[in-house]
């Protein structure tokens, strides 16, 4: 591990994240904000605003952010593969790169789809490298499988994103089901207002991740412009 940051113990990570907001600082790909130094500035601003932790995509972004903040970081690496729908941290080498550059938690796709590396092998690599492991799942069955394997956190991240129309509302029921099964739960996916984020905690989530509503200005601006365009003058 790099010596430029203080490595938090696992207990410290959970203590600092509990009932907190994780800000996902993932700009639109190839957009004007898609630059490691801008991502680092976003991350610092989110921490100033009270974010308990961050979700950061990509090694270069992680390298830029890690020295600037002292909150826990959930790190991922996204890839578009020709032979698999798995995008989130698909390879063992990705896990190694994220661990080497300061990730506290590494998230991987926990869905039951064709993948280059088994979920079990990904989990083993994360734990071998001393990081906590999070599974991004789409349904209860996947969450139960990842819980049985030994993931430290199970997230509702992929609910609504594995086929068919994407729902507008978050999957509160999945959060409730994960919690009822005894998981440490990350609510993630379409929590785009403070009220929805608060409702996630009320449903039993241990923490909640918010992305577009905080750090994707293109998306946030479009919500306003579309609403204004649809409005009818009195």
TrEMBL record:
Catalytic activity, EC: 5.1.3.9
An example Gene Ontology biological process: N-acetylmannosamine catabolic process
CDD domains documented for this protein: NanE
UniProt keyword list: Carbohydrate metabolism, Isomerase
GO MF annotation list: N-acylglucosamine-6-phosphate 2-epimerase activity
GO CC terms in record: cytosol
Family: Belongs to the NanE family.
Name of the molecule in the record: Putative N-acetylmannosamine-6-phosphate 2-epimerase
Lineage, broadest ranks: Bacteria, Pseudomonadati, Pseudomonadota, Gammaproteobacteria, Pasteurellales
Gene: nanE
């Amino acid at each position: 591990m790099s010596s430029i940051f203080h490595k938090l113990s696992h207990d410290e990570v959970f203590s600092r994240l509990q009932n907190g907001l994780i800000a996902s600082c993932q700009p639109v790909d190839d957009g004007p904000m898609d630059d490691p130094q801008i991502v680092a500035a976003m991350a610092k601003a989110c921490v100033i605003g009270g974010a308990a932790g961050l979700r950061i995509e990509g090694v270069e972004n992680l390298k830029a952010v890690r020295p600037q903040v002292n909150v826990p970081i959930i790190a991922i690496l996204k890839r578009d593969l020709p032979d698999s729908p798995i995008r989130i941290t698909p390879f063992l080498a990705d896990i190694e790169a994220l661990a080497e550059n300061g990730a506290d938690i590494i998230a991987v796709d926990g869905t039951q789809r064709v993948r280059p590396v088994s979920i079990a092998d990904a989990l083993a690599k994360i734990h071998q490298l001393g990081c906590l492991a999070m599974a991004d799942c789409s349904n209860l069955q996947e969450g139960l499988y990842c819980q049985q394997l030994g993931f430290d956190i199970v997230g509702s991240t992929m609910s609504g994103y594995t086929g068919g129309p994407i729902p507008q509302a978050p999957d509160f029921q999945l959060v409730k089901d994960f919690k009822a099964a005894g998981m440490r739960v990350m609510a993630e996916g379409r929590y785009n207002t403070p009220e929805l984020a608060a409702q996630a905690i009320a449903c039993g989530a241990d923490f909640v991740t918010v992305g577009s509503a905080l750090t994707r200005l293109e998306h946030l601006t479009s919500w306003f412009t579309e609403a204004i365009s649809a409005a009818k003058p009195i």
